[in-house]
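anyone seen this seq b4? input:
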Amino acid sequence: MTLRRTGQDARNARGFVIVLHICGNFGPLMTEPCSTIQTSKLDPDQALGQALRSLRTSRKWSQTDLALRADVDRNCISLIELGRNSPSVRLLFRLCDALDVSPSGFLLDVDRRARSQPNR
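predicted toks r here
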């Protein structure tokens, strides 16, 4: 379990975040640099965004290219890739159709990313 920085009060004098380390028992308090703090699973919205970006960039398409093919606004693609928005089922199907992948295969990739990659 980690405490994320929410303001200056979450940092000590050296710029480290205070982290409560729990490993089966109540372990001691430790400090770690902000850049090394990770959780064990990726947020599903972020995993979906990573999977979408990976498919898009493997085709060497810009966000605008994908947006035109899926008939959505480019900003929508950007927000999904950043993990800030979740696509509706209908939009997910349109994106998969534009990328020529099955929705089930795409979601399997999302699930794999969510379960195996640490949060960045």
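The CA atoms of residues 29 and 51 lie 36 Å apart. The two ends are 15 Å apart (CA to CA). kinda curious what u guys think
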